[in-house]
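Reminder to self: keep the SMILES exactly as supplied, no canonicalising. Ligand is adenosine-5'-diphosphate.
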Amino acid sequence: MQSRVRKVPRVLSIAGTDPTGGAGQQADLKTFAVLGGYGMSVVTAVIAQNTRGVRLVHSVPTEVITAQLQAVSDDVTVDAVKIGMLGSVEVIAAVNDWLQANRPPVVVLDPVMIATSGDRLLAQEAEEALRDLLHRADLVTPNLPELAVLVGELVAEDWSTALEQGRTLAERHNVFVLVKGGHLAGDRTPDALLAPGQPEPVYEAAGAKVRTNNTHGTGCSLSSAVAVLAARTGDWSVAVGVAREWLRGALTHADELEVGQGNGPVHHGHHLEAHLVQLLTDWANGMGQEGGAGPEKGADSSFTEQLWARTGDIRSQIDDGRFVPALGQGTLPRDVFLDYLSQDLIYLQDYSRALAQLAVRAPTEQWRAFFASGAAGCARETEQLHRTLVDAGVPVTPSAVTAEYTEFLLATTQTRDWAVGAAAVLPCYWLYAWIGNRLQEHRERMAAESGDGGRDHPYGAWVDSYSDPEFTASARRARDVVDVLAGQVDPEVREEMARAFRRACELELRFFEHPCERTGTTHTGTAEGSRGERGT
Ligand SMILES: Nc1ncnc2c1ncn2[C@@H]1O[C@H](COP(=O)(O)OP(=O)(O)O)[C@@H](O)[C@H]1O
Ligand SMILES: Cc1ncc(COP(=O)(O)O)c(N)n1
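Structure tokens returned for the bound complex:
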């Protein structure tokens, strides 16, 4: 591979089509897009196929294929090409000519011959021509029947024969060969990357077979994934390893798609789900709506919206973590919840002090009243929590994370610019309101589905208190304070506010996850879910 790497590689697919979207061009373009590439496509054949089989193949005339290829390369620098179905001797010759004159730095050739459904996609007389095209590729990705045709032997029935055939192909044509074990009997799907001149695979893996019938387009998707990732990383082993992991995820989530009645497609965008949920949630929480000035809109959005947008990664980790989702589902073990509450007690004592500090130093009467009332609310909450935990016999000693968080808040509210202190205490309001409101929505949805009114949620009281409209309004006021200040302070202080906000978000994440990581949390008890006030 010529070592040119690019963050968003421009990747071309030369292949046939699948109107049901699971294989061929459609699979290739989806793969390029979800793995960070810019996809382009030259169609070699229009195929009437679905998840059950191929009905008709319409070959595109070679002059039309050549004209498409020329239109692309006359205008766009192609960083990688993935070649799929070619179909005939003439098409292979046209692509060969184009490659000779315009070879991109990454060329992956998936020697498509027969679809998963068993239908032929390459004329038998074109096999020889395809063999002659191999030397133009960097990497060839045959399945076992295709590998057998390319080396002129019987289809391998075991992995060592498959590897032997792969080695033969690599040496004969001086190309990398990805030997794929998807067609082997048994419960494993080994893959190996062989380099010419090297007897041992440069990459090998053998995971358990994913239990699904939805494997339509796996070969197309894998070769496209390797092409785009190789152009991005400049490393074949990395590209194959990451592509394989991604494809395993796409197979694991394939059944969710419910596309077609035969061998359905894989879920190309499965790994983007968390990001999408984030976007939808932010929108539902009012971010991104006000006058069209969403959090991503930079200069148009308020300071706190920008802080929020820049900390989306932390909220994704909270969402993917062990604590908050289980809390929402009601599946969080009781002892973990109690451990969390014991840390929250210590935290709230110091949070109350931090808010009191802000009240003492507040530049306006209004803000003094706001933070003083927050401090009082937390003090009430700690009394109540203390009783709950003493009744349940839970020990209360600060963890390292709790100590780090409270020391940070106390130091910041005492010694830094007042605006920085206000930014540091904001995540505790805002994230709790955000989590509380989302968990409440989830709980209501679950209750509507099960028809039980959702009353028996073990952590219902917790969810109620942080989705309370009064608490949400307090969070909104805390944001307003920070926004007003951000407009008054120097840029350096604004930067320090942003750093303090992010640090507090990170500490919130660690604070949530810590009780799940602690071992030996064996306390038992029946303490009711505590009502939190957090500065209301
Ligand atoms: N059920 C499965 N579970 C896990 N990986 C699979 C499964 N089926 C296929 N694969 C993987 O998909 C890729 C393509 O597989 P294969 O079936 O060999 O090729 P093709 O789709 O070209 O016929 C390989 O990396 C293979 O390991
Ligand atoms: C246009 C086109 N190209 C390739 C395949 C093979 O699909 P698979 O990846 O399942 O082998 C296909 N069915 N259609």
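Points to follow up:
The chain has 19 helices and nine strands.
The first helix runs from residue 24 to 34.
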